[in-house]
Structure formats: structure tokens, C-alpha cells
């Protein structure tokens, strides 16, 4: 476990990343030396998130701080942030919605196809399903995703998947 104070910062010269919390090298190395950059990050002692330690290209690391997280914690640019990191031992580096767990328990083919994907694609699909609050919509997304994986023999095509979701919404 590592605990430290950092400052909410913004990458002005990088169009991909914006608000982030710098993680000094000495606090990140215990996690990155294990070749696993997924951590449980507790901020301000209040909110724990599954996060990735991202390399800044200069020897240090950072954790992204999206708008939802910043609003939840009332963080503003330049504000000090108390950070605690610990190893994320969860299988996917994030929570899996129960709707998706149930679908996989009922559909062995979809489960096998999902688990044949890279861990990053698995996390992206889990996020895609869990990003809606309504359990019925999570179930619908899970069903569309499992059908997509089966019809494409496990090849993920985001454009096609999103179109299939739109088509399902029009039924």
C-alpha cells in the first residue's frame, strides 16, 4: 500500500488525457514492478476506484480523474488530493455488473468468447455494459454484446456492436 498527497493537474499539451493525479515514481514502482498497473485508488479517504497507473513519459505516473469523479469529490484544478494505492486483485481490474455475470453463467459460448479477448477489451466491454445505471439497460447491452461475440466468432467490432445496440433499441 502507498499513501501520499498529490495535486489535481491538467495536461494542456496532450489532446488525449486531461485532468489527472500525478503519482510519483517511488509510490508507483511497487505496483509497476509486478508488471501490473491496475490499482485500487482511494481518493480523499472517501472514494475508491479501479484505476490504471499511466506512464507520463518522464519516469513518473498518473491516474486519470474524469469529470464524474472530480464532481463526486468536489475537486478543482490545483487542489491537493490524498491518495492511497493498493494492488487490484480483481480478475478484470473493475467491478462486473451482476447482469453480465448472470449472462455468462447461462451462456458458456459467450463466456468462452469473452474470455478469449485481451484483458483490455474485456474491461472495455464490461465498462460499456456497466456505464448505464438502469439494470434493464445493462441486461440489454449484455445480451447485445453476447450475441455480437457469438455472431462474429469472438471478433470485436465496436462500430457493428453499437449499430446492433441501436437496432435492438428500435425493436
Give the secondary structure arrangement, pairings included.
Layout: E1 2-7, E2 9-10, E3 19-23, H1 25-32, E4 38-43, E5 47-52, E6 54-55, E7 61-64, H2 67-73, E8 80-87, H3 98-106, H4 108-115, H5 119-130, H6 135-151, H7 158-169
Brief summary:
With 171 residues, the chain is of the alpha+beta class. The protein has seven helices and eight strands, in the order E-E-E-H-E-E-E-E-H-E-H-H-H-H-H. It has a four-stranded antiparallel sheet with strand order 1-8-4-5, covered by helices on one side. A four-stranded antiparallel sheet has the order 2-3-7-6.
Structure description:
With 171 residues, the protein is an alpha+beta fold. It is built from 7 helices and 8 strands. The strands form 2 sheets. Strands 1-8-4-5 form a 4-stranded antiparallel β-sheet, covered by helices on one side. Helix 3 packs across helix 4 (108-115).
List keywords for this structure.
single chain, 171 residues, alpha+beta, 4-stranded antiparallel sheet, 43% helix, 23% strand, elongated
How do the helices and strands follow one another from N- to C-terminus? EEEHEEEEHEHHHHH
- Structural class call reads alpha+beta
Number of strands: 8
Runs with pLDDT <50, length 5+?
none
- The shape is elongated
- Nearest-angstrom radius of gyration? 18 Å
- Distance separating the two termini: 49 Å
> Which range best describes the helical content: under 10%, 10-25%, 25-40%, 40-55%, 55-70% or over 70%?
40-55%
Number of helices in the DSSP assignment: 7
The percent range for strand residues is 15-25%
In this structure, how is the largest beta sheet organized? 4 strands, antiparallel
Averaging pLDDT over every residue, what do you get?
91
Sheet with most strands: strand arrangement: 1-8-4-5
Amino acid at each position: 500500500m502507498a499513501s501520499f498527497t498529490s495535486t489535481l493537474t491538467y495536461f494542456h499539451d496532450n489532446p488525449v488525457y486531461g485532468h489527472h493525479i500525478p503519482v510519483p515514481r517511488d509510490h508507483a514502482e511497487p505496483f509497476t514492478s509486478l508488471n501490473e498497473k491496475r490499482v485500487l485508488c482511494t481518493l480523499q479517504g472517501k472514494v475508491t476506484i479501479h484505476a490504471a497507473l499511466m506512464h507520463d513519459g518522464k519516469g513518473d505516473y498518473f491516474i486519470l480523474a474524469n469529470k464524474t469523479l472530480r464532481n463526486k469529490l468536489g475537486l478543482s484544478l490545483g487542489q491537493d488530493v490524498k491518495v492511497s494505492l493498493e494492488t487490484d486483485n480483481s480478475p478484470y481490474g473493475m467491478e462486473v455488473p451482476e447482469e453480465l455475470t448472470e449472462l455468462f453463467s447461462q451462456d458458456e459460448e459467450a463466456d468462452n468468447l469473452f474470455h478469449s479477448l485481451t484483458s483490455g477489451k474485456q474491461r472495455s466491454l464490461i465498462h460499456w455494459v456497466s456505464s448505464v445505471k438502469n439494470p434493464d439497460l445493462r441486461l440489454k447491452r449484455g445480451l447485445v454484446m453476447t450475441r455480437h461475440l457469438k455472431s462474429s466468432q469472438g471478433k470485436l467490432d465496436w462500430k457493428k456492436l453499437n449499430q446492433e445496440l441501436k437496432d435492438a433499441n428500435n425493436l
